[in-house]
Design brief:
disordered N terminus, globular, binds alpha-D-galactopyranose, 30 strands, nine-stranded antiparallel β-sheet, Beta-galactosidase, Chain A, domain 5, single chain, about 350 residues, six-stranded antiparallel β-sheet, mainly beta
């Protein structure tokens, strides 16, 4: 990150309303020469990302609401939020750490999803302006949603020309588990442009983690070879989504964790999405070991914003992460965090266009 890249970014802050208990919620606008991102302190959410298509037309490429009330009314989609303390699922909401078993809320059938009933997406984070961006902080107390240890999480959003970068860090005062990610739904055709089925995606991965009926990994790392999970070459998303393939039928589409090549902590490409109509391309790089590619199968049209209905598969998520249910799979990269350790990880969304 050079000073020159930062010099063009403008950061401003406005009110985004008040929580039912009166807590003030803010919205920050981060503007570079090529993108404008809006981030709210409610759930440290990305509200909008505006970028130009190949013809220079600017659109919002993530699903979201333009009012706080929209977010407060929607407890299902996690639009744009930082999910935690544990993004994705923990089987039966149960795990053992240092010989002690912890129970966290089962809010997804028999499993715990995205940190429980009141996850990090439902909290108002504190925020401060930083060069080219904003830093959001949340202190989750010992016992919050059943998780051990007071966890302090920082999420920094910064813009650099055509990229939005997210830097995460966390510390704890007792052994705990942590897995934070951003849950933005992208639609590179622009908000209201229909489904993402015609977009192409490349996932830089040779293996994925198959799941049981509750979408909990079985523990196996299965090859993508010869299956509709193979996105090593850029492929139209809708091409095989309805194939007679048990994993797809179970999840109602793509909703799986792909194992990225390279070591945890090393920056690598996770995915590249291409909208052929507008020419917009999104490249995702991360230091995380996995990415949950989710095709918005649970969007059911019950939420709307400004005349846009959020229907099935109108957005796709690329949740860079540690694997789901890692606390119950010692063979997966660890999500444990100990006192005195400071964990940092990063994900960057870069927007370009191709003819
Ligand atoms: C993640 C999960 C999905 C779903 C969404 C939110 O992507 O893997 O199964 O829960 O979050 O609807």
């Amino acid at each position: 990150m050079t000073m020159a890249a930062q010099a063009h970014a403008e950061v401003s802050k406005a009110s985004f309303g008040k929580m039912p208990d009166g807590t003030a919620v803010d919205i920050y606008t981060l503007k570079s020469d090529a993108i404008e991102a809006k981030i709210t302190t409610f759930g440290a959410r990305i509200v909008s990302i505006k970028t130009a298509d190949k013809a220079g037309k600017v659109d919002d490429v993530v699903l979201g609401y333009d009012t706080l009330d929209g977010y407060l009314a929607d407890k299902k989609t996690y639009f744009g939020a930082v999910v935690g303390r544990y993004g994705n699922r923990i089987a039966h909401g149960k795990f053992t750490l240092d010989g002690k078993t912890y129970q966290v809320p089962k809010n997804n059938d028999d499993n715990s999803l995205h940190g429980g009933t009141v996850g990090f997406d439902q909290h108002v984070w504190t925020a401060k302006e930083i060069p080219a961006g904003v830093e959001m902080t949340l202190v989750s107390k010992d016992g919050d949603q059943g998780y051990p240890g007071t966890l302090t999480a920082h999420v920094r959003y910064t813009v650099h020309h055509n990229a939005l970068r997210i830097d995460y860090s966390a510390t704890t005062d007792k052994d705990t588990v942590v897995n934070l990610t951003n849950h933005s739904y992208f639609n590179l055709g622009g908000l209201g442009s229909g489904t993402i089925l015609d977009e192409e995606i490349m996932l830089a991965s040779d293996k994925y983690t198959p799941t049981d009926a509750g979408l909990i990994p079985t523990g196996e790392l299965a090859t993508v070879e010869g299956t509709p999970m193979d996105f090593r070459k850029s492929t139209v998303i809708g091409k095989r989504i309805n194939d007679d393939f048990e994993q797809l039928k179970r999840a109602g589409g793509y909703d799986h964790n792909w194992v990225l090549r390279g070591a945890t902590g090393e920056t690598k490409t996770a995915a590249k999405v291409h909208d052929l109509k507008t020419g917009r391309v999104l490249t995702v790089t991360t230091t995380e070991p996995g990415v949950q590619f989710y095709t918005g199968n649970f969007l059911d049209g019950s939420f709307h914003s400004n005349g846009v209905t959020f229907s099935k598969r109108t957005g796709l998520c690329l949740e860079t992460q540690h694997f789901p249910d890692s606390p119950n799979h010692p063979s997966f990269p660890t999500t444990e965090l100990k006192p005195g350790e400071a964990r940092h990880w990063t994900t960057t969304f870069t927007f370009t266009t191709e003819k």
